[in-house]
Design goal:
Layout: E1 2-11, E2 14-24, E3 29-33, H1 40-47, E4 55-60, E5 63-64, H2 70-79, E6 80-83, H3 95-100, H4 109-113, H5 119-131, H6 147-160, E7 165-169, H7 177-194, E8 197-202, H8 205-211, E9 214-219, E10 222-227, H9 234-241, H10 266-272
Parallel strand pairs: 3-8, 3-9, 6-7, 7-8
Antiparallel strand pairs: 1-2, 1-4, 4-5, 9-10
């Protein structure tokens, strides 16, 4: 389904992503792990075409999405939904309308500006919210919800697009432990029930072990590990996170029920505390 070949993104003389290559032959839940600045977010933004690649190919179902332009690029972005760490909802807009905005690329600009939607679209949005356990929040403003609820609204908006791929960029980094587990359970259930490919950037090894079918480790823009969760040994963790000799196995198993870190130093808090 997905063939990434020598994908590189340069910022001046620095390679944020350096010759990344891997193949995903069938729909899977893929976790990308690594410290802040490893290139995880840049890679997802290239895949969704929010950032252009400097070189390489990223073929999905035989199409190099890095070369798409205009309507073809917008169509790909509809098929490759993005979930962000900070939710990216419209705070003063009600929850149902935020979910309906997943259809922006498929509905007229005039209709979306005036928030006028076909009945079938509204019913679909409410059905998705019910599936994610937050249907009762539909009439509320997004800003009135907890962080975990807002992230589930963001997931609902992504599902509303009916995408083939969902990209999640640090989806639990700003959440408390309970909401982090709810969000990860939701993403896993969407993968299992719908068969959608999910690629999620994650900070902790324990989360990757618990939820992912496959894990890719990045360090300084390069892929340094690609394997199954049970292959995430202490030595592998050292390679990915660049920890010193004090790094041990207990440091790699921070539970999702422990405080979930956020911010640029999250890897240090999660992995080395």
């Amino acid at each position: 389904m997905l063939h990434v070949k020598n994908v590189t993104r340069m910022f001046g003389s620095k390679a944020a992503v350096d010759n990344a290559s891997f193949v995903v032959e069938k729909s899977a839940f893929v976790g990308i792990i690594g410290r802040s600045g490893a290139g995880k977010s840049t890679f997802l933004r290239m895949m969704n075409r929010l950032t252009d690649a400097s070189s390489g190919e990223l073929n999905f179902e035989g199409t190099n999405v890095l070369t798409l332009q205009g309507a073809a690029k917008r169509a790909w972005q509809s098929q490759c939904a993005m979930i962000f760490q900070q939710f990216n909802l419209v705070p003063r807009m009600d929850v149902a309308s935020n979910v309906l905005h997943g259809l922006l690329n498929r509905r007229s600009t005039l209709a979306t500006v005036f928030n006028v939607w076909p009945k079938d679209d509204i019913l679909k949005a409410l059905s998705i919210l019910e599936r994610l356990g937050i249907a009762e929040q539909a009439p509320k403003r997004a800003e009135a919800l907890s962080g975990g609820q807002q992230q589930r609204v963001a997931i609902a908006r992504a599902v509303m697009q009916d995408p083939k791929v969902i990209l999640a960029d640090e989806p639990i980094a700003s959440l408390d432990p309970m909401n982090a587990q709810v969000v990860m359970d939701t993403l896993r259930r969407i993968h299992d029930e719908d068969g959608r490919m999910i690629i999620a950037n994650l900070h902790t090894l324990d989360t990757a072990r618990r939820y992912c079918d496959r894990v890719i480790g990045m360090r300084d823009g390069r892929i340094v590990f690609d394997g199954t969760p049970d292959m995430l040994s202490t030595s592998v963790a050292r390679e990915i996170y660049g920890a010193d000799e004090s790094f041990n196995e207990s440091a790699t198993s921070t539970s999702i029920t422990a405080p979930t870190p956020a911010g640029d130093n999250a890897y240090a808090d999660a992995m080395l505390s």
